Each structure stands twice: as structure tokens, then as C-alpha cells.
Amino acid sequence: MTNTIDSYAQLHSPPRILMGPGPSDVTQNVLNALSQPTVGHLDPFYLEAMDGLQSMLRSVFKTENELTFAVSGTGSAGMETAVVNLVEPGDSVLVCVNGVFGSRMADVATRAGAVVNTITKPWGQVFTTTELKDAIAKHTPKVVGIVMAETSTGASQPISEIAEVVHNAGGLLIVDAVTSLGGMNVAVDQWGIDVIYSGTQKCLSCPPGLAPISFSPAAVVSVEQRATKVSSWYLDISMIANYWGANRAYHHTAPINMTYALYEALRLLHEEGLDACFARHALNHQALKIGLETLGFTYAADPDHQLPMLNAVNLPDAVDDAQMRSALLEQYNIEIGGGLGELKGKVWRIGIMGHSAKPENVLGLLDALEKLFMENRINCESGTAYNAAKAVYLGGCSD
Ligand SMILES: Cc1ncc(COP(=O)(O)O)c(C=O)c1O
After folding, report:
1. Is the Cβ atom of 73 under 6 angstroms away from ligand 1?
2. Residue with the nearest Cα to atom 16 of ligand 1?
């Protein structure tokens, strides 16, 4: 596209099939919601939309937490909000690192002035409660941070027993649910999570731009008892809560149209039903998995802890990472993700998140891969992976 100062071409984005680590496919309903007229951030219509949004967020997080809202920013803004509000300079923070996003949380906590200790596991593995208990006994952290769905490895971290261990030692638990929320069960109150955050562009199938977040009453008390001001003005929940709560006091101009979009995405999720949505992710994962394994891919994450919505698979030797991903995009309009960090060049990250989790996407990808494998003379029998996946949808096979 050549532009001069007088004429810039209009944008026409290509209709991709998004099967990477996010963003995921956005439905026309959500795009329509995004394009509704912008109103003021104190307009009664908008305030009602905020109330509805908060109520739907509480239901998807499975929490009664009053302080549940959407941070203006992507998932990383959610991470920063969680950390900078709970952490004061000099506080001890323990972060569990088994992939890129655990490392990012440790970095954020270090920048917030915390004394950060980490426990690590090889990428693809998850932490046991005993490992956490030992690390907590050693470091006595005020805050423990852990990623539920590690998007860099496809590993699913069990969360339900962790909060008790953290609370018994007097700490608070932050959970990253950027990739898990909306695609698998997240039960904030039942599991005793203190702060949880997510993003809109993964299993919620909304464009990127907001970070759903929820603070437990104990987390709110901890923020109220701080001796120092929160280091970020923009992300200080004591001020933001005055806008999302009854006072409606201006803090910053809300991203109005993104709120419409998230509202609609959550409305669609509730219309489908959480359990039905989780079952849809699980079924599409089973079909995709059997198809990929038929093609010679193996999973990077521990077999007992594989995420449904993010399939990180080791590349067979014959596959040229960059060439094959470009061919998928250029010839089939399908985006998948490459590896991140230490898995760069070694894995693909195939997302079936939100509205991307559907048979036509899974079968379309397997069909495209079979064709590309044959074109590139990579060992593959036409239709085998596709048919193996199809059998799962027809109820013929499950793993
Ligand atoms: C687990 C996890 N945490 C945090 C983030 C950061 O979110 P964002 O890229 O929306 O800022 C991501 C993004 O992929 C993620 O997968």
C-alpha cells in the first residue's frame, strides 16, 4: 500500500481464521456491538452496561467479589493491576515460573519493588501442592503468583488446592487466567483466589483491549492497609473502584466501545452456558489432538495437564516452521502461532479459543496441513488425520 500525505488507503482487514495463541475469532455480533454509537462515560446507558458487564464477569469468574471489573488495557495490564496493588516495595513475592508468562509476572513484581523469589519447573510441567508448600515455608511470601494456563507451553496448572496453602501461611494468591477464562472451569470463590485477571482476546472471543479482574475482600483489605501509595496512578484500584462502584467518580475515560464488545461476548457466552462452552472446547481439543498426533506431532505439555484451548505441539523434523506457517496463512487464511521463549522454533501453538473452537476450524486446519505435508513430500496419508478427527465428532473415538 503506497500512501501520500493526501491519500491514505482505507483499511480492509483480511478475514483470517484465528487459531493461534490469541486473538481468537470474533463473531459478527461482537463486531456489531463494537460499532454502536459511542456515548459518554457517565451516560446512564453506559453505566447500566457497566453494571451488566460486572454481573456477567462475576458469573464467569464464579465469584461474589464486589470489586470485579475490566481494566482498560490488555491481559498484561491485568497482571500489572494485580501486582502493583498488592505489592509494596520490599514485600516478599513468590512467583511460579514454568513458561513465559510466569517470568513476566516475576518481572512485573520486581519492577514494583518486591523481593521476588521464583520456583521453576521445566516448561510443559506444572507445580505440585507440595512443591508450593515447601517454597512458601522457605520464603514466607506476602503474595504468591501463578499462571493457570501457560500459553507458551499449553500446560494446565491445577489451582483448587493452592489457595489453602498460601492462606495458611498468611499470604495472598494471584492467578493469571488470561487463557483459561471462558474455556475451562475457573471457580474463584470455591478455590479461594485473591486476585484473578484475564484478557478479552482468548476464550472470550472479543478483540484485545480489556482485562477482566476480580479482587477478594481480603485482597481489598490488604490494599486499604498499604503504607505507601500504589506505584501506578492509572492502575490504582482504590481510585478505579470509585468509578466502577456506586460513586461513579471519573478516573479515566473508559474505553466505551470495548465495553460494548465485551458485554456482547459475555452475553453470548452466558447464552451458550458455561458448561456447554467448556465441553465444546474439550471436544474440539480431542478431535484436534488425534488429528495432530496422526500427522506426527507430539504435545509439549505433560499428558495429564494439557490445556484444551492451547495445543502446543513439537514439530516433526521434516516440518519447516516459518515456511509452513506462512503457507497456512497465505494459502488457507489460517493463523497458528510459533513457539515463544525457549520453545521458539520448536513448537507450534494452535489455539481453539472461544469461537475458534469449532469443527470446521479443526477439520479445515487438519485438511490444510495434510495438503501442505503432501506438497512438501512429508510423510502423510491423505485424509487420515482429518478422518481421525471427524470420528471424534461423530462419537467414534475419545482419548
Ligand atoms: C497466560 C498469559 N498471561 C498474560 C498474557 C498477556 O496478555 P496480553 O498480551 O493481552 O497483554 C498472555 C498473552 O498471551 C498470556 O497468555
Report:
1. no
2. 151
